[in-house]
Amino acid sequence: MAPGAKARAEGGDGRDGGDRQLLAQVAAGRRAAFEALYRVYFPRLERFLGSLSRERSLMEEVINDTMYVVWRKAASFDGSCKVSTWIFAIAFRTAKKAFCKLDPPEESELEDIEDDGAGAPDRLCELHELRGAVAAALAALPAMQRAVVSLTYLHHLDYGEIAQILDCPVNTVKTRMFHARRQLRVLLGELREDER
Amino acid sequence: MKQQAHSDGPQGEHAQVAALLPWAAAGTLQGAEQAMVERHLQGCAACRADLAWQREFQAAMPDPAPQLDADAALARLLPRLEPKTTSWWRRPIALGWLVAGQMASVALLAVLLVLPGRAPMPPEYRALGAASTRAGDVIIQFRSDTSAADIGRILQANGAHISDGPTAQGAYLLTVPSGASASVLQALRRERAVLLAESLDAQP
Fold first, then answer.
1. d(CA A156, CA A152)
2. Gyration radius of chain B over CA positions
3. B49 is a domain residue
4. Which of A42, B65, B81, B124 has a CB 3.0–4.6 Å from the CB of B70, allowing a cystine?
């Protein structure tokens, strides 16, 4: 799927219209609408929170606390942003309280990457290695840089939405992404050099 | 993926475009920024290489499958959801009733203020041969213990008809035969059952 098409599928305006309808019904107290909205956002929040913390035991609690706020505050949504931006921002605030300290960078994981794809076709092997390397490089980033990278590439949010979610200036988002890119290039470059 | 070095400094369009490339790769740029990036890419090999690197990185990003059970988590959350209890003054229906009640109060007040002195209403039905009358010539108030039979007798004796009322004070508007209001008034005032009888004309 082309990046643009995926972006539209994940959080584009068409989807936002449906989200707004559901949220309006949630504001009116309709549980069926809440359950529908919950099922849409549960996997998205799990992916987002997974980029912030590896504390899996608290993940469900944070998601449920987030959606509980959505149930209670649905009527206060003023429509000035996408529903997804509003919900992700609630999730971020909830996560900051729950994960007392967002995950620090992992220093040693790059060394743990091993070629366990022996025997697989070369292309799959390369992809497997690449994904392992990227995962290790991402884990080595500070949590807030990881969040920006995840929201940009996996959730297809623009920098303005990310700034709203993380409650920071737009330039901070760009700066975090700049540092993340630079570090990712260095880490992935080192890994490739080690492989040779 | 090979690291690319930018040839110029952090200033200018190149720096702006370089900062936007992640969102260009993700397909979330729009409008003028998208146009600026596309235009810049045509003449900047470094940014084209950077964009290619980012697209490769994006494609390689791990997207782990969900591990949590959404149904089980939802089942744990649902008991926490209290019913929506909107405050009564915020409910649309309550507000509607409030407005309706207020309008009814205003209408009642208007009736009370206007009724004693408002323009006379024509009788609903008159025989063609009946004498010409004017509606609402006289306002009359009977004692509270006056029977309906006595009221009927008094009206009939004076050729008068009730055209409106009672008001909040228990008064009625009477129409009386044209040119006879003065004599009718005198006759009505002589009745023990009549507390008040006044002409609505300026000169009775």
1. 5
2. 44
3. yes
4. A42
Q: How would you class A31 by CB atoms within 10 Å of its CB: exposed for 0-12, middle for 13-18, buried for 19 or more? A: middle
A153 CB-side CA count, 13 A: 27
Q: How far apart are CA B204 and CA B176, in angstroms?
A: 12
Q: Please indicate, yes or no, if residue B139 is contained in any of the structural domains.
A: yes
CA-CA-CA-CA torsion sign (A73, A74, A80, A84): positive
Q: How many domains does chain B contain in total?
A: 2
Q: Which residue has the tokens 């080595």?
A: A140
Rounded-to-integer distance, Cα A150 and Cα A46, Å: 12
Interfacial residues of B (vs A; Cβ cutoff 8 Å): 1-3, 19, 22-23, 25-30, 53-55, 57-58, 60-64, 66-68, 70, 73-74, 76-78, 80-81, 83-84
CATH number belonging to the domain at A3-98, selected among 2.40.10.220, 3.90.79.10, 1.10.1740.10, 1.10.150.20 = 1.10.1740.10
Mean pLDDT of chain B: 75
At the top level of CATH, the class of A109-195 is: mainly alpha
Contacts 24+ apart (CB under 8 A), B165-172: B165/B115, B167/B112, B167/B115, B167/B116, B168/B112, B168/B115, B169/B116, B169/B141, B170/B141, B170/B142, B170/B144, B171/B116, B171/B139, B171/B140, B171/B141, B171/B196, B172/B139, B172/B140, B172/B141, B172/B142
pLDDT at B90: 47
Is B33 in a helix, a strand, or coil?
Answer: helix
Interface contact A135, partner B, CB < 8 A: yes
Angle (CA) A46-B67-A1 rounded to 5° is 65
Show the tokens assigned to A143: 């949590």
Measured distance CA(B116)–CA(B138) in Å, rounded: 11
Task: Tell me how far apart the alpha carbons of residues B188 and A128 are, in angstroms, rounded to a whole number.
Answer: 112
Output the pTM of the full model. 0.59
The DSSP secondary structure of A23-56, one letter per residue, reads: HHHHHTT-HHHHHHHHHHHHHHHHHHHHHH---H
- Spell out the domain ranges in chain A: 3-98, 109-195
Q: What is the pLDDT of residues A43-98, one digit of tens each?
A: 999 999 988 887 778 899 999 999 999 999 999 999 899 999 999 999 999 998 88
Q: Residue type at A193?
A: E
